[in-house]
């Protein structure tokens, strides 16, 4: 429907503008918005896999791979350039995704989820315990990188990072939407509905899933690098199962039908956590838990689904 | 910058030799046994719930934690009256959490999402986990809580010169074994057990002959929850209760249950024992790898047999 | 007349304009309040330090405000939870600095938090007192202008404990360590073992165990130690971990078999109660003990302790005294800056520069913020656990108080390098010994 995609495009534009302008007015929001966008990028990867009906409970491992690339670089090679971090971090995450994916795509549903969880917990335990290599539970500091060779003051850097992340997030959203509408994307959805028929068509379901998996791993790595640079740290927690759970949580919260859902969910999650940890006696888990339950029970297409329903209802009257 | 400043430590092979030859082997086995007993209780509940309801209960760790905290609270209450009352207190705490919390979770939430996508069912339990984690902090606070009466009542046992608490090496394994055989008996020899197995095997057929599947799910969930809470209650005398104790246990028990094969009762016992022993041995040999062991085993097993060591292969329905 | 009036108006206008434009650099008006942002653990295992720390901060600030505030300006506190984790911590810290515009921060308890926030504070030009984190490396790797540590660090703390051990048990042959696996656990062991090898080269380290932070169960570690039978076991654990370790070890007789050294165990004494046996060597991360031998008759000290007990139900532990020191350092800096500024309100930079080389007093021996690296010089108290009438927990006996100068790494050197230059007779230093109740 032409009008629907126009509305979504306008919404996307509005979100981009908001993300770009609000931090100018409230400086401390800059880093928060970077976090929201970066996590949204990771969740785009989760959404890709959800199209195939598969949930990865270990995507934190790609997130951690990206983050620790920046951490290792900082520790062993000194201050780097942000683009170098991004490129190498994404490559590392992609390679890891390929490696793990080759094993994992043979399985479906609960087994897929479990194996992903297992791999990510192995990575977590290595990051946590190899103290002399990774600095253990405290994580590795990520020094502020240069951008295209230019060094920025802390104040300016947060804006540079913000607009860069915004650009990457926008690009990723378009790319993922295009991918999902492409033939491969459709084949991915076919895995969910009826995989055997896909194979009757002569398409290797495993190969299709692997493509989707590797792309989602790359997205995880990008998000990981951005978060590590924004927070200036990479910790083993980035690979822990609760982090993977967060990503899936955000995906369902936002709604898996549309790429914008990743960012809607991420925004709600991070904002609630931020404000609740500061004000409401640290009850952010309670609030978010109830919100998620409400979404699952009453609005299974997430926030975006709710919003669409509201618009549809309005259109009818 | 960071050098190693210690006296030469024996290398792995010589340590292995020492371990296998001597009393250290027995000691490590005992440590593994008591650890395995607790992990088994939590894992078997998780496995049972998945086997019957096909839901991964992420809140299982929270049930464990709540069981522990409530047991500690009750213990502290009854200790002045008579320390021996703390044992029934542990049992009462498990039952209360299992029935009340388990029942509420199943009736109010899970029953609404049966038949929906797996990921949604799982996420509901994840949301419950988050809520319970927060509630735990609000109810019991953040300071460590300690209630060790049940443990202190029993004497120590000396084995090869190393002193163990009877609670650890006798009570815990015995309860685990009782739970194992109790569960087996229940599922194989009682009517309710057969009903549960019937619903697991084929829900539609079972419903067709008049079995109330809803009731079966409720009872199964309560049993599973009670087992988790029991694990927590039994663990509470041994340790300081701090926020976050459920988070580690859930992923560990999941690793055990998945490695055994979700839904396999006896298999879970064997796997818990194996992983418990492996962990204890690793602490004696290369302590840094202690945390790695369960997940490495899980990866290794699942890559070869995704349905778990004892799981039945799933038929693909076209 | 009119022309003079116009000139006056012009002059007034120009000076007003200059005053507005020159901003904070010149003489300030007294602000309405001094805002202090404090990071502390309100959740998670370290809340055993964080909650008493917060209670202490509120008490101290209320007290200061009752006396008129700092330089006549009252204090206003805001707290953020270190336990919320790295991302929320950094975001909240930025919010404090950039949105709430606090004048100073106290960060943090955890060395991990400090590692993140100290460079950030420097970046944001925020006056920060590291009020409780102990990792020595933070101030040794970089010279900061805005960050100060109003307490000692791991090096003097571990050295004091080591020297006490060497003085009281000079003939031990074997030692093992059970520390939490994170920066503090690792660094504290590195400091202790490096110095130990220098002062007692023939000692044998039989086991180095680093269980995961927050581990609920030490049974296997204890079995192993019982089999190995070391003469001494060191642990720098704290909070619930230490409680569990001590209790589990006590239940199985390990505490009787080996001499346990609780490097920073002062904070667990009251909580452990009767579960803590006699004869354990206990450090206090500074000269902190609510029955400090040199201070126990001091009226202000006693009043503070009683007020704290009335508010929270327990006597203060070392994080509480560290909070006292942070406020003392803050007040001292402001007072010094105001004086240097001729009584006018100082700018942030002036306060920061006043903090350098500051001498101040908490509830122990006097302290100083070293000019070269902003490291605090704090005396260390170590004692041994002992039963005493009238207490349902152990007290410290046979206490030694070590002066900071000799046991703190000299400015400009890294701790581990300096420790490698120590000789065995380092432990022979003369240290006063105090008995409980005398």
What does it look like?
The complex is a heterotrimer of chains A (317), B (318) and C (438). Chain A is mostly helical. Chain A has a domain at 25-240. In chain A, 79% of the residues lie in helices and 1% in strands. Chain A is built from 13 helices and 2 strands. In chain A, strands 1-2 form a two-stranded antiparallel sheet. The longest helix of chain A is centred in the middle third of the chain and has 28 residues, at 154-181. Chain B has a two-stranded antiparallel sheet. Chain B is built from 13 helices and 2 strands. Chain B has a single domain (23-304), classed as ABC transporter involved in vitamin B12 uptake, BtuC, CATH 1.10.3470. Chain B has helices at 12-21, 23-53, 60-78, 86-109, 118-140, 149-153, 166-189, 191-201, 203-208, 213-235, 245-260, 265-285, 292-304; strands at 156-159, 162-165. In chain B, helix 2 (23-53) packs across helix 11 and helix 4 packs antiparallel against helix 10. Chain B has 318 residues and is an all-alpha fold. Chain C is of the alpha/beta class and 438 residues long. Chain C has 2 domains: 34-151 and 297-374, Response regulator (Rossmann fold, 3-Layer(aba) Sandwich); 155-284 and 379-434, Response regulator (Rossmann fold, 3-Layer(aba) Sandwich). Mean pLDDT of chain C is 88; it is low at 1-26. Chain C is built from 16 helices and 16 strands. Chain C starts with a helix and ends with a strand.
